[in-house]
């Protein structure tokens, strides 16, 4: 070789080694068999780096959305001779009492009071002992981080570990902003500490009790049977000095549920689910490997290899068996279970959480830029918006109100603390560990590479102007930061949260939302996470709202760098942009990275996260009701596509266990909306629960059991 090329070869070698060292890596592992299989960041974080000094920040609010713990199966389609014996109602934990968060005088009815029996002494969909233990672990993590490490929450009921300004009044005889006092002489609940919310399902209620018990074990009140069992076992239980009343927990009737999509109450979801099912069937038809995988799994588990497997329902049974410690079928090797886990996630998420990565693979062509691909993207977006958009709106509203409250209190105390920029009084600021740096970033901590040249203007606008000096703020500033100028929309949001027995929106330090995989899966899709693993039992997404100091302190800085992909313009005069409010997202206690928006430590400027990620999916309850009544999805279809009729939406599909869907005419779907005119119109103009229920009175005639029949864990 010509010696002239030796230096060039050396440079190329060095560049290749550097690329190999910094290339985003996967650990190569497949989805495991335990609940910790997805307890890690889902996206390699070597994309965005912020200069954030959380040690100077103040934690304002925490919101946690979590799935229930391990439960018994929801179906008996697959029977492996398992006896389910670990689900007695033995839970000894914090007592709770449901109330209707929308102002109805009675608590919403439990939706699953009597479920079909299973072999053993359990019924379908019941939280198991292992599931309750998972809930305790989630609560213990909350306690470790927010009570013991950060001192953000008090140790109830006023234990030695209490910290924060509200610790002395968290559980007291005072009923200020309180909730419930069902036991005479009981202690009242201070809802400024926490607002609790669940779906009215037995397993989510029991899971919430477990989380609360792990968080505040001093509030635990065993049942009579539980106390007797504990005494017999010689256990010493930790009880409050005075018996606390059951903690108030908000819930809603099914038609106002915000935690999952339901085509029984949102008629528009029926043709949308049917269209996505057709897209999924087309994807399956392109997958030459799927018949071989179906046969391999069926033969290994002793099933009929000629019958197409319902992957989500098979996963539902096996995942419950794994969590319960039941013996697995003889042929259930790691390879076989990996196939089931992957196919179940693909077939489930395609309907309830069709994120961008999954949506691009649906249909006969597997994405592309055709009219059909664009129509599929619209359908995927609409399913996410109608399925989880009201919860997204709730999260945003709570942030807005917390910022307004913080800004108002800061303004009122500014005269006595004008010099507080260099530090805060003891107990006023909550300090966090430094964010995790990306191993492959290789950049200084002050640099952010954002969404590319096409998105630079949007990013700069979302982050705001230059890093100007901090000024006294007001509640209006909170609205402007969140981009909420519509007073009617704000009033609607406050009404939907319900005055009831909880604090006003954003007025609690902690918000707990006890839900399902159909809550976590679409939320992860909204946050840009790929559909790589089914959210495990007790999966949880935490949103921490932080306030960083402005000015020369550099509490949180986004610096522009040269180059085409840099943040164009940065602040006024070319200075760095300094967002005041930040969100840190954790998934199963580990940083979650929103691609192109957040750092390796899970940090993202609130304004950018809101505008670029969450706001496109947020929807208020009134708008949700209006959209759900429109069953004509012609605007979601390409010219060569026809929707299935609503009467056939729940019929067969090859990928989900033998459904044979039939295409319906567009006019039949349009006729559905016309036929419902009287029932739908009755709710127009009515406010509150009665009006919303009136709009859906006739919905049952045009919806099907498609969702409930298909999904592994719809509720």
Would you write up a description of this structure?
It is built from 20 helices and 13 strands. By secondary structure, it is α/β, with parallel strands linked by helices. It has a domain at 45-154 and 193-222 and 377-408 and 510-559 and 577-639: 3-Layer(aba) Sandwich (Rossmann fold), CATH 3.40.50. The C terminus is likely disordered.
Descriptive keywords:
seven-stranded mixed β-sheet; alpha/beta; 20 helices; Rossmann fold; two-stranded antiparallel ribbon; disordered C terminus; 715 residues
**Largest β-sheet summary:** 7 strands, mixed
Q: Tally of extended strands?
A: 13
Could you name the CATH class of the domain at 45-154 and 193-222 and 377-408 and 510-559 and 577-639? Alpha Beta
N-to-C CA distance:
68 Å
**CATH T-level fold name of the domain at 45-154 and 193-222 and 377-408 and 510-559 and 577-639:** Rossmann fold
Low-confidence stretches: 20-46, 159-169, 172-186, 233-242, 417-459, 464-487, 489-500, 560-574, 645-715
- Form type: globular
Which band does the percent of strand residues land in? 5-15%
Structural class: alpha/beta
What is the average of the pLDDT values?
A: 71
Computed CA radius of gyration, to the nearest angstrom:
26 Å
DSSP helical segment count = 20
In CATH terms, what is the architecture of the domain at 45-154 and 193-222 and 377-408 and 510-559 and 577-639? 3-Layer(aba) Sandwich
Summarize the amount of helix as a percent range. 25-40%
CATH H level, superfamily name of the domain at 45-154 and 193-222 and 377-408 and 510-559 and 577-639 = Phosphoglycerate mutase-like
Pfam family, one: His_Phos_2
Family: Belongs to the histidine acid phosphatase family.
Signal peptide: 1-28
GO molecular function: phosphatase activity
